[in-house]
Amino acid sequence: MDYKILFVDDDPNILSAYTRNLRRHYRLTTAAGGEEALQLVQTQGPFAVVVSDMRMPGMDGIELLSHVRNFHPDTIRIMLTGNADMGTAIAAVNQGNIFRFLTKPCETADLAMALDAGIKQYQLVTAERELLEETLKGSIDLLFELLSTLDPISFGRAQVLGERARRIAVAMRMERPWVVSLAAVLSQIGALTVPASLLTKARTGALLDQNEREVLTRVPEIGSNLIRHIPRLEEVAEIIRYMNKNFNGSGYPQGPIFGEQIPLGARILRVASDFQDLLPKKRDRLDVIEHMKSRVAWYDPAVVIELEALLLEEHSREITRESRPVALAALREGHMLAHGIFTADGLLVVPEGTVLRTSHMEKMRNFQRISGLKEPIWVIGPDPEP
Question: What is the pTM (predicted TM-score) of this model?
Answer without folding.
Answer: 0.56
